[in-house]
Write a structure and sequence with these properties.
The chain has 193 residues and is mainly α. Helix 5 (103-140) runs antiparallel to helix 6. It has helices at 2-22, 26-47, 56-60, 75-79, 103-140, 144-184.
Amino acid sequence: MKPILFGCVAGLLLALSSSHAAAQPLAEIARQEKLRREALAAKSAAENVTPKVYTTADLRGGSRLTTSARETPRPAAAAAPAETDATPPSQDAPETAGAPMDEEGWRNRIDTVRQARERAQLMVAALQNRADGLWAEFTGRDDPAQRSVIEQERIEALEELDRTNAEIQQLDQDIWDIQEEARRARVPPGWLR
């Protein structure tokens, strides 16, 4: 009986130690991939080689893929002719309208909106808590003068709560708009996570 038990324990320990030794943290894998991509970019820059671009037509072609060493035309540059007007860029537009944004630019843009949404959600929770507390205080008072003051504060808190909820809806729309713009610009989905 003891050899069977010893064999089971040894097998279990061996399985646990091998899975632990084989597992690599995701951060380490990401760091290695970043270094690999930087090395490839440096190599292609040193050799003066343009990267291969797969087009949508290649994907529709079925089993035969072709590559081209040219850049695909940018939708924004092809659609709008170069104009020199003195209008300032809008708040919703990327920092540089002519140049495409990189991964960091897209991440910063959506992270800013997401952080504003998180702050607004915290504010909603605080305002709801305040309104509930004022309601409990209102129902616990007998003095009409004190009740009217408490009711006025509660109404103000509820109005602020409504404004903040509307702000959250606008921020949700902004996030959706950024995601849609990124989709149209063919930005990899991982850049917005």
